[in-house]
Specification:
Order of helices and strands of chain A: EEEHHEEEEEEHH
Strand order of the largest sheet of chain B: 1-2
Number of helices of chain B: 5
Structural class of chain A: alpha+beta
Structural class of chain B: mainly alpha
Strand order of the largest sheet of chain A: 1-2-3-9-8-7-6-5-4
Shape of chain B: rod-shaped
Largest sheet of chain A: 9 strands, antiparallel
Strand content of chain A: over 45%
Distance between the termini of chain A: 22 Å
Number of strands of chain A: 9
Oligomer: heterodimer
Largest interface: A-B, 54 and 47 residues
Largest sheet of chain B: 2 strands, antiparallel
Number of strands of chain B: 2
């Protein structure tokens, strides 16, 4: 699997249509599951980059229940997304559909978040499976492979090594 | 997750075009070759064991995506790499990553707070238990 690591966050591809994001947290998985599913906690961290605030966070945590997230930028821009829960195993696993109001990739995606604990550290593995290979590739694969993700300044060296 | 990566319509369309142009291995290899300097269609066709019309088709896709430009020299029409769309695609991905890193750093802090609360909660319960036992 092709991966790129920045700090503790790993992003890579899996199969044809998925990308996988892995991050370790120094906390028991129950707390991670809470942080992912309790609106008052989600709002505190899922805010996005500077300038953005999570203004709506509604979670109906049951299979078939829906969730809705909205963010507002200090300059007034807004964006939103939501989906429906498909599988819930408390403290272990969440699967839900994902669709952005103004999506930058075609179709939607299914997001599975697995919480694994060992030695006081919880590994959260998020798998995003897009409707099509094209959508996934558009988000991740092609630019990763071509080295674009590594920065244009390093593109020359990378391409020279891989294709020369 | 797309916040911080949301773009105006034109910019989003440009990225779509860039990413789909990059999705093909031959086109990526052509770009890799052009990193070393401009080249003619013939020069590009050689290492790929492809016909010139097939290479020209790929070049048209790359040109439409703004990833390359063609020289005016009628005979050679050399291809050259255009840096801007690649830089924009790269910036988009970096923002996606940074966005998640920022989220997760906030989550680290939140988890420390929750652990501390949990610890205090347990300590209180233990004290209450002890008191109950003492009364008995």
């Amino acid at each position: 699997m092709l991966t790129k690591e920045t700090g503790k966050l790993k992003i890579g591809e899996s199969g044809d249509r998925s990308l996988v994001m892995t991050r370790e947290f120094n906390a028991p998985r129950k707390l991670l599951f809470d942080a992912w599913t309790k609106p008052e906690l989600v709002k505190r961290w899922l805010a996005g980059p500077d300038g953005w605030t999570m203004t709506v966070c509604e979670i109906d945590l049951q299979v078939g229940g829906s969730y809705r997230y909205e963010w507002t930028h200090e300059k007034g821009n807004r964006m939103g997304m939501g989906g429906v829960y498909r599988e819930i195993v408390p403290n272990e696993l969440l699967t839900a559909t994902e669709k952005f109001d103004e999506s930058w990739y075609p179709g939607g995606a299914i997001v599975t978040t697995a919480f694994r604990e060992g030695g006081g550290v919880t590994t959260v593995e998020t798998t995003v499976t897009y409707d099509s290979k094209e959508a996934r590739d558009g988000v991740l694969r092609s630019p990763m492979e071509s080295g674009v993700a590594l920065g244009y300044d390093r593109l020359e060296k990378l391409l020279a090594e891989n294709f020369a | 997750m797309g916040y911080g990566t949301q773009l105006g319509g034109t910019m989003a369309q440009q990225l779509d075009t860039t990413f789909s142009a990059l999705a093909d291995p031959t086109r990526r290899a052509i770009l890799a070759r052009l990193v070393q300097g401009e080249a003619s269609v013939q020069e590009l066709a050689e290492p790929f064991a492809m016909s010139q019309p097939a290479i020209s088709k790929h070049l048209r896709v790359l040109e439409r995506a703004g990833l390359i430009s063609r020289g005016r020299d009628a005979q050679r029409r050399p291809c050259r790499l255009e840096a801007q769309p690649l830089a924009e695609a790269n910036e988009w991905l970096e923002r996606y990553r940074e966005c998640w890193e920022q989220n997760f750093q906030r989550l680290d802090a939140l988890l420390e707070e929750l652990k501390a609360q949990d610890g205090r909660g347990k300590a209180v319960k233990t004290r209450q238990k002890r008191r109950t036992h003492a009364r008995r």
